[in-house]
C-alpha cells in the first residue's frame, strides 16, 4: 500500500469507525472469545509478499473484532472508563498521520507549546491555583513513578541517581491501603523496596488515611533511625473511590518537609465541576498531582495530566542531556522529555485541544454530572431492592454492592458467580473488588455515550440474573 491509496482507505476506516460507535451498544460488552481463539486464527508465519489491503481489512473484522471488549460501549460499567470521544479520536488520527516525536521543544515546537497551554487549561478547569504547571505523561503509573523518584532524590540530597541507595538509612514512603498498585510498582522500581511502603490505616466512609496515624508512623520511623521521604495520597481510589483527607495529611507532610503526590487518576476529571471539589480542599499544598483525561474526561488513551507545584525537583531528578539531545541556541525552552521517564513522547496535547474546544467545559461537566446523578439513582434503587445491600456508598459515580439473600452460606462465591454470569450475559459489564476481605461488586458510570436508560438497565440485568442464580442453584 502507498500514500496515494491512503485517502480511500482513510475514508473507509472513518466510515467504519462512525458505524462502530453508533452501533457498539448492540454488541456484547465483554469479548466472548476463549483464551487462544485469536492466537490460533492468526497465521503462524508472516507473509513474504504484500497482501491486498481489502483482505487485511476483512481479516481485521473477522479475526480481531470478536476478540475486542468494547470499552466505548454505553453499558461498560467495569473498572474505570477509558473514553475516546469523537474529537479526540480525530486529533489522534491527525497525530498518527503527522507522527512527530516530541521529546524536545525543537523536535516539534507546536507540541511542546500546545502541551504547556493545555496543561494550563486543565489546571484552570480543575480549580488549581496559578503557579501549578505540568506535563502530559503516558500514564498515571509513570507520573507516580516520577514522583517517587523525586521523593527518593530529595531525601538523599540528590545522590541516589549516582550512588544508589546502599549505605543510607531506609527511605520510607507513606500511603493508605487503598492506593492503586502503581504505587507499589513505583516503590519497587525506585529501589526503595516494598517493606518501606508504610500503609497508614484508613477510617470513615471515605476510607481515607487517618492523619494522626500518619503523624505517628512518621515519628516512629524517625525514632527508629529510618528516613521519611514522601507521602502519597489518593482521591478516588480504584477499588471503592477511597479519598484521603487532603488538607490534614498535607499538613502532616509539611511539618516533616516531605514531598507529596496525589493520585486522582480517575476522580480528577470530576473536579471540573466545582460542586465535586468538596473532597480535595487543601490540594494546593500538594507537590505533585496526577489525573487521567484518558479516563473520565474523554481524551483517548493515553493521556495523563501531571501537575507540579514546582517542576525543578522533578527535572533535577530526571533530566539528562547528552550532546546529541542538546538544543543549542534555544535556552529557556521546555524539553518535556526532561520531565518524564521515557525519552520519546507522543503529541498528546492535540486531543485535549480538540476535546475541550468541541464540547466546551460545560459540555464535559454535563456528562460527568449526569453520570454521578444516574449512578446515585441506581444506588438508591439497588439499596431498596430486597436481597441486595450496599457495601460502600457512592463516591462520585462509583459504589459497591452485594447480593445477600437470607440464608446464604457463602456470599463471596455467590457474588463471584453473579458477576461472572452478568458478564457472560453481555448486556452490561461489571467488575468485582474486595472490601475488608469480602467480595463486593463495583458499579461505576462514566462512558461518554451512556444514557440514563443504560444505567437503569443495569438494575434490570443485575436483578434478573440474581433471580436466575437463586432459582437454578440453591444459595
Ligand atoms: N491510580 C488510580 C486511582 C487508578 O484507578 C488507575 C487505573 O485505573 C491508575 C492509578 C493507573 O493508571 P494508568 O493506567 O494511567 O497507569
From TrEMBL:
GO BP: any one term: carboxylic acid metabolic process
Q: What is the protein's name according to its record? A: Aromatic-L-amino-acid decarboxylase
Q: Which Pfam families match?
A: Pyridoxal_deC
Any one annotated GO CC term? cytoplasm
Highest rank taxon of the organism:
Bacteria
What species does this protein belong to? Answer: Sedimentitalea nanhaiensis
Q: Does the keyword Lyase apply?
A: yes
Cofactor section: pyridoxal 5'-phosphate
Q: For this UniProt record, give its keywords in alphabetical order, as a comma-separated list.
A: Decarboxylase, Lyase, Pyridoxal phosphate
**Entry's family note:** Belongs to the group II decarboxylase family.
Q: Which Gene3D superfamilies does this one have?
A: Aspartate Aminotransferase, domain 1, dopa decarboxylase, N-terminal domain, Type I PLP-dependent aspartate aminotransferase-like (Major domain)
Amino acid at each position: 500500500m502507498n500514500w496515494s491509496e491512503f485517502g480511500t482507505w482513510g475514508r473507509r476506516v472513518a466510515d467504519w469507525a462512525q458505524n462502530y460507535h453508533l452501533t457498539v451498544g448492540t454488541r456484547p460488552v465483554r469479548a466472548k472469545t476463549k483464551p487462544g481463539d485469536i492466537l490460533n486464527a492468526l497465521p503462524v508465519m508472516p507473509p513474504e509478499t504484500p497482501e491486498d489491503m481489502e483482505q487485511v481489512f476483512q481479516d481485521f473484522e473477522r479475526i480481531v473484532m470478536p476478540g475486542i471488549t468494547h470499552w466505548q460501549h454505553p453499558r461498560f460499567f467495569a473498572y474505570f472508563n477509558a473514553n475516546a470521544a469523537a474529537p479526540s479520536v480525530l486529533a489522534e488520527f491527525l497525530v498518527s498521520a503527522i507522527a512527530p516525536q516530541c521529546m524536545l521543544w525543537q523536535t516539534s515546537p507546536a507540541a511542546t507549546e500546545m502541551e504547556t497551554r493545555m496543561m494550563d487549561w486543565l489546571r484552570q478547569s480543575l480549580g488549581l491555583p496559578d503557579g501549578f504547571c505540568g506535563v502530559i505523561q503516558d500514564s498515571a503509573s509513570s507520573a507516580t513513578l516520577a514522583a517517587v523518584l523525586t521523593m527518593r532524590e530529595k531525601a538523599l540530597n540528590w545522590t541516589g541517581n549516582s550512588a544508589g541507595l546502599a549505605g543510607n538509612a531506609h527511605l520510607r514512603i507513606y500511603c493508605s491501603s487503598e492506593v492503586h498498585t502503581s504505587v507499589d510498582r513505583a516503590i519497587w522500581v525506585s529501589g526503595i523496596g516494598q517493606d518501606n511502603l508504610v500503609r497508614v490505616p484508613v477510617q470513615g466512609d471515605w476510607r481515607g488515611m487517618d492523619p494522626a496515624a500518619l503523624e505517628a508512623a512518621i515519628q516512629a520511623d524517625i525514632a527508629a533511625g529510618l528516613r521519611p521521604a514522601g507521602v502519597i495520597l489518593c482521591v478516588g481510589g480504584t477499588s471503592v473511590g477511597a479519598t484521603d483527607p487532603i488538607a490534614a495529611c498535607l499538613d502532616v507532610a509539611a511539618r516533616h518537609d516531605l514531598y507529596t503526590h496525589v493520585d486522582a487518576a480517575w476522580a480528577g476529571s470530576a473536579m471540573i465541576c466545582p460542586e465535586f471539589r468538596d473532597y480535595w480542599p487543601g490540594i494546593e499544598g500538594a507537590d505533585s498531582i496526577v489525573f487521567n483525561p484518558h479516563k473520565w474526561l474523554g481524551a483517548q488513551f493515553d493521556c495523563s495530566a501531571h501537575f507540579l507545584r514546582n517542576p525543578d525537583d522533578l527535572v533535577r531528578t530526571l533530566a539528562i542531556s547528552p550532546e546529541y539531545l542538546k538544543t543549542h541556541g534555544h535556552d529557556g525552552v521546555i524539553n518535556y522529555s526532561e520531565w518524564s521517564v521515557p525519552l520519546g513522547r507522543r503529541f498528546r496535547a492535540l486531543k485535549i485541544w480538540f476535546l475541550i474546544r468541541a464540547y466546551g467545559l460545560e459540555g464535559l461537566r454535563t456528562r460527568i454530572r449526569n453520570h454521578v446523578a444516574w449512578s446515585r439513582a441506581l444506588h438508591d434503587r439497588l439499596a431498596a431492592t430486597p436481597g441486595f445491600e450496599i457495601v460502600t456508598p457512592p463516591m462520585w459515580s462509583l459504589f459497591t454492592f452485594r447480593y445477600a439473600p437470607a440464608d446464604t452460606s457463602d456470599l463471596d462465591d455467590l457474588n463471584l458467580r453473579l458477576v461472572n454470569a452478568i458478564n457472560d450475559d453481555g448486556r452490561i459489564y461489571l467488575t468485582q473488588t474486595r472490601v475488608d476481605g469480602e467480595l463486593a461488586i463495583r458499579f461505576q458510570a462514566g462512558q461518554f455515550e451512556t444514557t440514563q436508560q443504560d444505567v437503569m438497565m443495569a438494575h434490570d440485568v443485575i436483578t434478573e440474573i440474581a433471580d436466575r442464580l437463586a432459582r437454578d442453584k440453591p444459595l
